[in-house]
Amino acid sequence: AQSVTQLDSHVSVSEGTPVLLRCNYSSSYSPSLFWYVQHPNKGLQLLLKYTSAATLVKGINGFEAEFKKSETSFHLTKPSAHMSDAAEYFCVVTRSGNTGKLIFGQGTTLQVKP
Amino acid sequence: SQTIHQWPATLVQPVGSPLSLECTVEGTSNPNLYWYRQAAGRGLQLLFYSVGIGQISSEVPQNLSASRPQDRQFILSSKKLLLSDSGFYLCASLLPAASPEKLFFGSGTQLSVL
Prior knowledge:
Shape of chain B: globular
Oligomer: heterodimer
Shape of chain A: globular
Number of helices of chain A: 0
Largest interface: A-B, 22 and 25 residues
Number of strands of chain A: 12
Radius of gyration of chain A: 13 Å
Largest sheet of chain A: 6 strands, mixed
Strand content of chain B: over 45%
Strand content of chain A: over 45%
Number of strands of chain B: 11
Structural class of chain B: mainly beta
Helix content of chain A: under 10%
Order of helices and strands of chain A: EEEEEEEEEEEE
Distance between the termini of chain A: 41 Å
């Protein structure tokens, strides 16, 4: 069975400092992994995806994530936080078969302080 | 382009009352449709998915049901709401065989059961 665990429910950073949102996954096969962002009162937006190509994945808004099979991790990073990055972030893995069946982590709330 | 209409955006219902949330999709044909729920402080959980008219698969046992009376209409229902049904409900659409990052989400319905 597939699952994802987001290790922090809440992360607080100062504007201009690096962001690290941690995600570990469990999968019995080579997974497809994603990071989604959800801003208040808005829908989900795909940040980036990993689908067994390059292990370092670059996404929108300066975010990137590295797939580490040995550590079963897919942490999301950004060199310099912006106030507009404050949102809820979800690490997601797909289930086998129907590709719309996503398994979401519990979410990490990113707070960016001025 | 694809659009998902979900209504209402917010809903407050008493315990024991019925529920009907509607989702309609525009700009695509024969999509797979999904209902996800996000409980407070938790990630999204897949409730139902449908690969065609009248075809519904339930992912978790619960107080809710789903129906797909038309190709681009997906309805989430309950005969008697429970407190535990409170949450944020998202409808999503994905063309068959499309890669999972193409999953398209609606803007959601915030349901509060009091």
